[in-house]
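Private note to self, pasted from the team thread so I don't lose it. Backbone tokens:
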């Protein structure tokens, strides 16, 4: 229910069959999320009220896993 700013990301040339916002994979390189036109690999984020951090640190601290959805609140 809180805001999450994406500070750094990469666009991947893949086209998943998941709804936009669905987390596809969590790896040390980033959090891969389905987007309308492909896949976004999130590298660095800033959770509301927190310091900026790597997406790996965010995923570990907030227990993010594949199948979770961003943008729901």
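Design output:
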């Amino acid at each position: 229910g809180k805001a999450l700013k994406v500070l750094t990301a990469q666009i991947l040339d893949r086209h998943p069959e998941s709804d936009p916002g669905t987390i596809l994979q969590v790896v040390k390189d980033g959090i891969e999320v389905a987007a309308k036109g492909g896949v976004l690999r999130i590298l660095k984020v800033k959770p509301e009220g927190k310091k900026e951090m790597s997406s790996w640190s965010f995923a570990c601290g907030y227990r993010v896993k594949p199948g979770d959805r961003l943008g729901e609140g």
